[in-house]
C-alpha cells in the first residue's frame, strides 16, 4: 500500500550479518544509504546519510526510533585530542535487533514532520512469544589489524609500521631513530576483539518477555586504543484483552573508551608518526642525548589520556487499542537519556606540555516523546477501501553541556582538575527545544491493487522565529501492484510494483537560530 520508498532489513538477513554494531548492519545493505566510518578506532561512531546531504546549515542525520520511541540521533561530543565521538544508535546491540526499516526522503513527512527530511530509521528489537523459554548465546573473537602502509623500509618517510631497527632511514638517507618506539619495533599491534551475549525469550498468550545482556571488548591496532561496552535490554508484552496490547521496552548501555589522538590535530598519531623526522614530537627529556642521527619521540603521543565514559538509557511504553477491526489507536511515550563524560589530558612531563593540562566535558541530553496515531478503515464499495489516519507527536529535548579546562599540574600523578594550578569554565549551555505536530492522512485502495494516499502535517517548534508561525508539510503518493493482476507472469517475475511519491519537509532549527539567522 505504501507509495514512498521504504526499505527493510529482515531478521533472516540479520541472522547471517557479521555486524559489530548497528551502523555495520545498515551500511551497504540498502540502496541510497551511506555510512561513513569516520575512524577505525574502537567505539567511534560514523555518519549516516540517506540520499546524501540535504542541508548546509542543519543536521543531515536521519531521525531514529527504537521500538516506537524516538532517541537522540546525533553524534556525541567529540573528544578534544581524538576528534572522535560516539553514535547513540550503536548502543543497540546488533544481536538484539529483529529488523530495521528505513524511510528515505521527505515523501513520508506526514508521520514525522519538520525533522524528517534527512530520513527515518526504525529499529525493532526482538520480542518474546507464547511458548517455553528459548535461550540464545553468542560469542565472537577476532583481531583488529592494519594493512601494509608504505614500503617495509619506510624509505619514503612513512614510519608507521617500523620505528626502530637497522636500515631505517629518512627521506634524505640519514639514519632515523625513535627511542620511544615500542619494543616490537612497530607502532602497530594485533588488537584483540571479543564479544559476548546471552538472551532468553518466552511467555504466554497473556504475557511475553525478552531479556538480553551483552559485553564487548575491542582493542585497536594502536596500543592505547580500546573500547569496553556492556548493557542489557528487556522487552515485556501484556495482552489483558483481545483488543488491548501493552509493550514496555528498556535498554541500558555503558561505554568506556580510550581514544588515540587522531585527525586534524597537532597531537594526531598519524600526522606525527608517518612524517618521521618532520613531526611535532622532537627532542624530549634526554631520550635523544648522544644520538647524532635524526631523532624523534613519538611515544609521548600514547601518554595522552583521552577517555569517554558514557551511559545511555532508553525506555518506552506503547499501547495498542483496537476498538474494532476498523478502528485502531496507538499511543507511545518514551524517554531517552544520554550522558557523556569526556576527558583529554596530557600528564605532567609531557613533551609538548611540560606542566600538563586537562580538558573535561560533562554532557547530558534527554528526549521526552509523546506519540499518538489513530486510523479508521472501511469498505466504501466491494472494490474500494478507505483508510483515514490522524495523530500527533510532541518532543522535548534538553541539553546540558559544561566544559572546564585545567592547566599546570604541581607534579606527576593522575591528572585531575583539583591538581591543576588553575581551572576555568570555558563554556556552559542549558537548552530546551520543543517540537510538536499534528497530521491527517487519507488513503483509497482500489481492488487491493492500486493505492492513492494524500496527507498533510502542521508543525511548530520553539526555535521558530516569531514571524515564522506554523509550518505545513503536504505529501501525496501512488502505489500500483501490477503483479497482483491475473495476467501477470508470476512464474518469471514474482512481484512488480510501480510507485510515485512527492512530499515537502523542513529542517529542525537550532535553539537560537531564530535570533542568529
**First-to-last CA distance:** 41 Å
- The total of beta strands comes to 22
Strand order of the largest sheet: 8-10-11-12-13-15-16-17-18-19-20-21-22
**Which geometry do the CA atoms define?**
elongated
| Secondary-structure-derived class | mainly beta
In short:
The protein is mainly β.
Describe the structure.
There is one protein chain. The mean pLDDT is 88. The two termini are 41 Å apart. The protein is built from five helices and 22 strands. The protein is 4% helix and 49% strand. It is elongated and about 95 Å long.
Q: Could you give the topology of this structure?
A:
Elements: E1 6-9, H1 11-15, H2 22-26, E2 33-36, E3 47-50, E4 63-66, E5 69-71, E6 97-103, H3 109-112, E7 120-125, E8 131-144, E9 176-177, E10 191-203, E11 207-219, E12 226-241, E13 244-259, H4 269-273, E14 294-295, E15 305-322, E16 327-346, E17 357-379, E18 384-409, E19 420-446, E20 450-461, E21 471-481, E22 497-503, H5 513-516
Parallel strand pairs: 4-7, 9-14
Antiparallel strand pairs: 1-6, 2-3, 4-5, 6-7, 8-10, 10-11, 11-12, 12-13, 13-15, 15-16, 16-17, 17-18, 18-19, 19-20, 20-21, 21-22
Notable features of this structure?
517 residues, mainly beta, 13-stranded antiparallel sheet, 5-stranded mixed sheet, 22 strands, 4% helix
Amino acid at each position: 500500500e505504501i507509495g514512498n520508498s521504504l526499505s527493510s532489513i529482515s531478521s533472516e538477513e540479520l541472522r547471517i550479518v557479521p555486524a559489530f554494531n548497528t551502523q555495520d548492519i545498515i551500511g551497504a545493505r540498502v540502496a541510497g544509504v551511506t555510512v561513513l566510518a569516520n575512524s577505525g578506532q574502537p567505539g567511534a561512531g560514523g555518519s549516516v546519510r540517506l540520499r546524501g546531504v540535504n542541508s548546509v546549515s542543519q543536521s543531515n542525520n536521519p531521525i531514529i526510533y527504537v521500538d516506537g520511541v524516538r532517541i537522540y540521533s546525533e553524534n556525541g561530543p567529540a573528544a578534544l585530542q581524538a576528534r572522535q565521538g560516539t553514535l547513540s544508535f550503536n548502543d543497540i546491540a546488533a544481536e538484539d535487533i529483529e529488523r530495521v526499516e528505513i524511510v528515505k526522503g521527505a515523501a513520508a513527512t506526514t508521520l514525522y514532520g519538520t525533522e524528517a527530511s534527512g530520513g527515518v530509521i526504525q529499529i525493532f528489537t526482538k520480542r518474546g512469544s507464547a511458548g517455553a523459554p528459548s535461550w540464545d548465546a553468542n560469542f565472537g573473537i577476532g583481531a583488529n589489524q592494519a594493512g601494509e602502509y608504505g614500503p617495509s623500509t619506510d624509505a619514503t618517510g612513512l614510519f608507521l609500521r617500523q620505528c626502530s631497527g637497522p636500515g631505517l632511514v629518512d627521506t634524505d638517507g640519514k639514519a632515523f631513530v625513535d627511542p620511544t618506539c615500542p619494543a616490537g619495533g612497530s607502532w602497530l599491534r594485533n588488537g584483540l576483539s571479543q564479544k559476548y551475549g546471552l538472551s532468553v525469550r518466552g511467555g504466554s498468550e497473556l504475557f511475553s518477555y525478552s531479556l538480553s545482556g551483552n559485553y564487548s571488548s575491542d582493542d585497536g591496532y594502536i596500543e592505547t586504543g580500546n573500547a569496553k561496552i556492556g548493557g542489557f535490554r528487556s522487552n515485556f508484552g501484556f495482552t489483558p484483552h483481545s483488543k488491548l496490547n501493552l509493550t514496555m521496552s528498556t535498554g541500558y548501555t555503558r561505554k568506556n573508551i580510550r581514544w588515540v589522538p587522531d585527525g586534524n590535530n597537532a597531537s594526531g598519531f598519524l600526522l606525527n608518526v608517518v612524517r618521521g623526522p618532520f613531526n611535532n614530537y622532537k627532542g624530549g627529556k634526554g631520550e635523544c642525548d648522544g644520538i647524532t642521527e635524526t631523532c624523534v619521540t613519538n611515544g609521548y603521543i600514547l601518554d595522552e589520556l583521552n577517555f569517554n565514559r558514557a551511559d545511555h538509557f532508553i525506555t518506552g511504553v506503547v499501547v495498542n487499542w483496537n476498538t474494532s477491526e476498523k478502528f485502531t489507536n496507538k499511543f507511545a511515550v518514551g524517554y531517552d537519556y544520554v550522558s557523556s563524560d569526556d576527558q583529554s589530558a596530557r600528564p605532567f612531563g609531557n613533551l609538548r606540555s611540560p606542566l600538563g593540562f586537562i580538558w573535561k566535558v560533562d554532557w547530558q541530553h534527554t528526549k521526552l516523546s509523546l506519540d499518538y496515531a489513530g486510523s479508521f478503515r472501511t469498505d466504501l464499495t466491494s472494490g474500494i477501501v478507505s483508510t483515514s489516519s490522524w495523530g500527533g507527536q510532541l518532543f522535548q529535548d534538553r541539553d546540558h553541556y559544561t566544559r572546564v579546562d585545567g592547566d599546570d599540574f604541581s607534579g606527576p600523578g593522575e591528572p585531575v582538575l583539583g591538581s591543576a594550578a588553575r581551572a576555568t569554565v570555558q563554556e556552559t549551555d542549558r537548552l530546551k527545544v520543543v517540537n510538536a505536530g499534528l497530521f491527517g492522512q487519507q488513503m483509497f485502495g482500489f481492488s487491493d491493487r492500486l493505492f492513492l494516499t494524500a496527507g498533510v502535517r502542521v508543525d511548530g517548534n520553539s526555535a521558530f522565529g516569531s514571524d515564522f508561525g506554523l509550518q505545513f508539510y503536504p505529501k501525496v503518493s501512488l502505489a500500483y501492484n501490477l503483479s497482483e493482476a491475473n495476467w501477470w507472469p508470476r512464474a518469471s517475475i514474482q512481484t512488480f510494483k510501480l510507485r510515485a511519491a512527492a512530499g515537502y519537509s523542513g529542517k529542525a532549527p537550532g535553539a537560537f537560530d531564530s535570533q542568529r539567522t
